[in-house]
Amino acid sequence: MLKKILAVLLSLLLVLPVFAGQAEDTAEREAVEKLNALVNDYLKDNNFHYTFDGKNRFEMQFNLNSALKTCTLVIYTYYDGISFSAWPDFTAKHENLELTAIYLALVNQGRYYGQFYMDFENGDVFTRAFHLAEETLPGMKEVEVLLHQQLFYLEDFGEGLQAVAVNGADPFQEFEKAEAAE
Q1: Residue 23 carries which DSSP code?
Q2: What is the mean pLDDT of residues 41-55?
Q3: Beta-bridge partner residues of 91
Q4: How far is CA 64 from the centre of its chain?
Q5: What is the DSSP annotation of 88-143?
């Protein structure tokens, strides 16, 4: 009889992690749904035109007040946070990747609401911010600031970025011009 009880208890111990994993999956899914609702409400309240993939990705186009003219902005929701990324309509030429990296390093000094990134494999350049939401969800103001800050970064530094990434301009001179205009 003791062997049967022990076997049942051991079997339960093997099954309990499965139930715990299902509860964790449910909590993560609910967190993403709450963030999706927040982003959806913000975008609708501001009459932004966007697409939503039905899971966790919102995409929209923005006009910029700079030489870049437009960009693509994507918002991703995760179980533990929300990210905002904005891509200009160009990529860095392979021969200008190192110059572009220098320019981005200069620009990223002192940026607090996002940073510029570059993919060395394909030359994609973009801004990105991530807001951690482990226990507290961001509000509409946080969404507004983080979304618009990525656009402002492209407006302020995008012309210099394009000059360096596409035309091979001097990153130090372009940074100085952008800083002077800011």
Answers
A1: H
A2: 96
A3: 124
A4: 18
A5: ES-B--GGGHHHHHHHHHHHHTT--S-EEEE-TTT-BEEEEEEEE-SSS---HHHH
Copy the structure tokens of residue 153.
């970064």
Tokens 């006009």 correspond to 63
Cα 18 to its chain centre, rounded Å, is: 32
Q: Which among 120, 134, 129 is positioned nearest to 165, based on CA atoms? A: 120
Instruction: For 65-97, write each residue's pLDDT tens digit.
Output: 888 999 999 999 999 999 999 999 999 999 999
Q: What is the pTM of this model?
A: 0.82
63: left (phi over 0), alpha (psi -120 to 50) or beta: beta
Residue 79 is encoded by which pair of tokens? 């179980």
* 22 or 64, greater pLDDT: 64
